[in-house]
Amino acid sequence: MKLYVLAAAALLAATPTQAGVITVAGSHAGSCYDAAQARTPTQQALAVCNEALTTQALSQDDRLATHVNRGILLMLSERQSLALADYHAAMAIDPRHPEPYLNKSVLIFDGDGSNQEAAQLAEKALQLGTKRPGIALYVLALAKEDAGDVESAYRDLVRSAALEPKWDLPRQQLQRYRAKQR
User: Fold this and answer.
1) 20 to 30 A Cα–Cα from 67, which one of 39, 74, 127, 130?
2) Is the pTM of this model over 0.70?
3) pLDDT given at position 9
4) By CB neighbour count within 10 A (0-12 exposed, 13-18 middle, 19+ buried), where does 81 fall?
């Protein structure tokens, strides 16, 4: 059974939930998923994730999921380099899985990384079929605005708000825009 955690921190803290992935219910990997879903980056939660990765016989899908879920917890606890390592490990397991790219885009955008690289990662997550396209569109919108493409940024924010109706951040960003008649 697969459990997909939702995506990307809000951007780290303001995002409704992160983009995680599957685990077996009742296992350490399942508990790691639950912690990522609940956004509780405690030492105990991280220890459970570590235990899953080091002692459980996980399928490739569950190993990928646990790396993404632990990466989310590390990102929430501001341990970016370790989160990045988990996202890279997940990408190495399955380079066609979208959620590591989405979470990495949020991490890079939130940090001191390149907004252009974050946009490329968000675009890849969209192309691969992320479960949270609204978050990817939000990252794209902010990167486009930063690059001076305000019209495209506005369109992406509108789409992001429509896809993530419970997430206030896209609507808050849209309030900064004023429409002009031509």
Assistant:
1) 127
2) yes
3) 40
4) exposed
